[in-house]
Amino acid sequence: MQIAYVLDGRLVVHGGVLPFVLADIARKIKPDFVRELAHRLKKNEAALTNEEISLARNENSEALTLDEIAKELNIRLIEAVITDDFSDIIFNEGNVHFMPKKRGDPDYEPAGVLWADFDDELMLVDDRFLIPMIVGHKEGRGIRWTPSGKVIDINVVHLYGRGRNSGILIQGQDDIFRAVYSDGRPIQTVHQRYLLPAPTAQPDRRLITRIDSAA
Description:
alpha/beta
């Protein structure tokens, strides 16, 4: 019984993992990591935000691996089924899927891993706080992804005569993901910009000129 698994460096899950879930997992299974982060930021552990924990995890992914995240999610699923208690936050319905709400609204309630919304939640989260994922749940006209390619949504709306099989996500031998369609649409490449090294800050040439002139 699984609610999540890891495939080629991405967590595969129905809706998606938002920062509040990622932070909750870190607090539970990696308390030393959270404690060290609080010490580094000179904050009380309880005062750490979900985004601070998520960012720290993504800057050091070995501190909490995707496999560990998937394992914890699956443990919580099994416990919920055995006890018939689905009150864990990973099962939160939130209020985006069932109401005209979106992340950032004053009364917004985030969804757990089954109900997270690609358009009105994941797309509105800074990619620095997200883990690499393949998700579904929210339908679209085609396969879609966040600007950096970190999260890919493969849920394509039903098309007459083609069902939900008009779009397929494939990964070639070059490790590049591509969206391939059977209805004549061109192949789309998922540009995984989040894997590129961060740009190096360039020195201010004006400052260098002033220093050289003063020398």
